[in-house]
Amino acid sequence: MVDTTADEPRSTLAVSGHTETAPSGSSRLLDVLRATGIGLVVPSLFVLIWWLTVVAGVFPESVLPSPVTVVKSLWIWAFGNKEDHGLYAGTLSLAIMASGARVIVGYTIAAVLGIAIGVPTGASRVIGQLIDPFIQLMRPIPITAWVPLSLIFFGFDFKNAVFLVALGSFFPIVVNTIEGVRGVNRNLVKVGRMVGARKLKLLWFFILPASLPSIFVGLRLGIGLAWVLVIVAELLSVKNGIGYTLLDAYSFNRFDVVIAAMIMLGVMGFLSDRIILGIQKIFLRWHHEVSIHAE
Amino acid sequence: MLSNEIVVCENLYRSFYSKEFGTKDVLRNINFRMSSEDFVVIIGPSGCGKSTLLNIIAGFDSPTAGRVMVRGRVVEEPGPEKAMVFQDYALLPWLNARENVEIGLRIQKVPRADRKARALRVLDLVGLSASAELPVYKMSGGMQQRVSIARALALEPVVLLMDEPFGAVDAFQRAIMQRELTRIWKATNASIIFVTHSLDEAIFLGNRVLAMAPGGIGITGELSIDLPRPRDPMSMDFAALKRKLFGMLTAHLDEPANTFLE
Fold first, then answer.
1. Is residue B262 over pLDDT 90?
2. Does B135 contact A at CB distance below 8 Å?
3. Tens digits of per-residue pLDDT, A8-67?
4. Cα distance between residue B8 and residue B34, in whole Å
5. Residue B187 near residue B111, CB atoms below 8 Å
6. Do A190 and B90 touch (CB under 8 A)?
7. Rounded CA separation A198/A123 (Å)
8. Which residues 95-134 of B are in CB contact (within 8 Å) with A?
9. Contact of B102 with B91, CB cutoff 8 Å
10. Quick count: other Cβ atoms within 10 Å of Cβ A253?
């Protein structure tokens, strides 16, 4: 009868690495520097082993280029020109824009639809019964299995890539939105009804903000999948972008460019995740702080 | 009907169905009337239906049979005239204290300046005027419960429903909050229905205490308390009332009440 479990989820949200006592300015800077230093140890070792492998001649240089070669190729890809450097020179910004545009458009569609469909599906029993089984049936189909149909419907261009990106990021966003809405503290909904909020006002002032933590979990999973799927689209059909460059360089045995493209994909994925995290920080300051204060 | 009868429960029944136990009556033939100057405490063990009764009065739940009337109107849905204070506070953690108190007025489209003034007035009443702009997630449990009480008072309810509101705060906070609630009750003339399972809390707060027993047995007795306030839980009179109330709560059991009290 008494909801003693209401406070429990809070404690499970406790974020490690946060302390209750605020460190002074200088010791905080030292902390950050030390954390960064520790964080660089493993990546440095990785590059060192890679470099040693190349120096020892385990693989021919044409298959596994040295880190220095890759950095040079990346530089040329970014800032070189065709006259001096031939192929893969100065086209990086175009590739980023091509892939980035597909990700941004596809992901935005997925986020808008995912939240717009997820909130009513989670909030209303009837809409849930209507929509939820369909989502659960479609979700197990790997997005890559949609490629043939997508090609027939959208052709070998932008729309095909956008469709695959949107479809791929839609599912984690919609599923987490539904879960978030269903998991809203029931007393919060009671408060909404008590103060006279009905339907849209109940959703807007109470249910939507309370489900944001879960929605952002979906948004972060979604952005990761968006980059996976833009590469799938570019490997299979579209004729430009970072993923296309990767495939193209592979067919010309330019493994330096292949690895440079891989690095750029990592950077782009990391940056887009940081952007989502930044937006999350603005919207979920309360949630973050709640988790710190949990005992 | 008398005009000062603000809550009337008539022949209330509520049964729940579960696979394990089949259909069970949680409430069976509950009748009570409450006038505007009452501070009613409903006390009983877990599972006796006291929270169900409160939820029905609030309009969150419907009775299987019978009806509840608040100020002469049959309760059909929740509304600001029956404001509830929850044990887990149920505050909106993304808002500060004042915005939490204002949320109902915002839904009712009260102009910004008006609602701010009203919010600050009730926050002052619960002793939080200095913390109006503080985010609620930075507050202690006791402070959060004050915000929750202020939010309910801002709705200017006919009756204030409190569901074990001090169950989640520590013993010291709890004693302070009980005193505070007595003061707020006197200052606002609010009518309160307060649910608890603590004998001390019931006798400290109520001027009418209803004892409830589980299994659909319902209200087993009523105690009128006219001790002067603030009441002293260490006094002989208090102890005598406690013994009497415990007797009411255990009257339906086979063992006589005094076997529990040594």
1. no
2. yes
3. 344 434 444 444 455 566 788 888 899 889 999 999 999 999 999 999 988 888 889 999
4. 6
5. no
6. yes
7. 12
8. 103-104, 106-108
9. no
10. 11
Question: Which residues of chain A neighbour B164 with C-beta distances below 8 Å?
Answer: 2
Contact A172, A113 (CB under 8 A): no
- B165 upstream amide cis, omega within 30 of 0: no
What backbone phi and psi angles, to 5 degrees, belong to A54? -70, -45
Distance (Å, rounded) from C-alpha B181 to C-alpha B200?
14
Q: Give the C-alpha separation, B208 to B135, whole Å.
A: 36
The half-sphere exposure of B160 on its side-chain side, counting CA atoms within 13 A, is 25
Residues in chain B: 262
Q: How far apart are CA B262 and CA B248, in angstroms?
A: 17
| Cα→Cα distances A177→A87, A118, A171, B96, Å | 45, 5, 10, 25
Please report, for residues A128, A141, A177, B38, B202, the alpha-carbon distance to residue A182 in angstroms, rounded to integers and kept in the order given: 10, 24, 9, 38, 35
Count CB atoms within 10 A of the CB of residue B226.
Answer: 6
Best probe of the B interface among A7, A188, A195, by most B CBs < 10 A, is A195
Tokens representing B61?
């739940």
pLDDT of B256 > 80? The answer is no
Supply the pTM of this predicted model.
0.84
Bridge partner list, A291: none
Per-residue pLDDT of A227-279, as tens digits, reads 999 999 998 888 889 999 999 999 999 999 999 999 999 999 999 999 999 99
Dihedral-angle region of residue B66 (phi above 0 means left; psi in -120 to 50 means alpha; beta otherwise): left
**DSSP character for A183?**
T
The answer to whether the beta carbons of residues A143 and A232 sit under 8 Å apart is yes
Both tokens assigned to A207: 């249910």
Residue A206 DSSP label: I
B129 contacts B123 by C-beta, under 8 angstroms: yes
Nearest to A1 among B47, B79, B107 (CB): B47
Residue B212, helix vs strand vs coil: strand
Q: In A, which residues are within 8 Å of B50 by CB distance? A: 1
What ipTM was assigned to the predicted interfaces of this complex? 0.90
Q: Write out the two tokens for B65.
A: 């049979």
- Give pLDDT, residue A60: 86
The SS3 call for residue B3 is coil
Instruction: Report the C-alpha gap between B127 and B139 in whole angstroms.
Output: 14
CB atoms within 10 A of CB B89: 27
Closest CA to A289 of B136, B87, B128: B136
C-alpha gyration radius of chain A: 24
* Phi, psi for residue B158 in degrees, rounded to 5: -70, -40
